[in-house]
Amino acid sequence: MKRPLNPEEITEWIDRYISGEMESQECTHFEAALLEDYDLAAQMEEQVHARNLLQQVFQEEKLRAQIRVFQKQEKREVFFRAVLKYTAAACLVVMTSLSFLLTSMPVFPDSENDFTVIRGEDESIMRPDRKVVFDRFFAGQAHIAEGQYAAAVRDFEQVLEEKDLRSYFREAAEWHLIVAYLKSGSLSKANDLYKQFNTCVECEYEVSRLNRWKIWLQIQYSRALS
Amino acid sequence: MNSFSDSDIVQGMLSEDERLTSESLKHLYKSCSQMIMQIVCSNGGNVQDAEDLVQEVLLMFRTQLLSGKFIYKEDVRLSTYIYRMAMNQWITILSRRSADVKRVAEYHVRNEGMDRDPSRIFEDVEETNTFLAVFSKLSPLEQDLLRHYYDKKMPLEQIANLLGIKSVDAAKMLKHRTMLKLRRLIKRYLGTI
Question: How far is Cα B106 from Cα B98, in angstroms, rounded to an integer?
Answer without folding.
Answer: 12
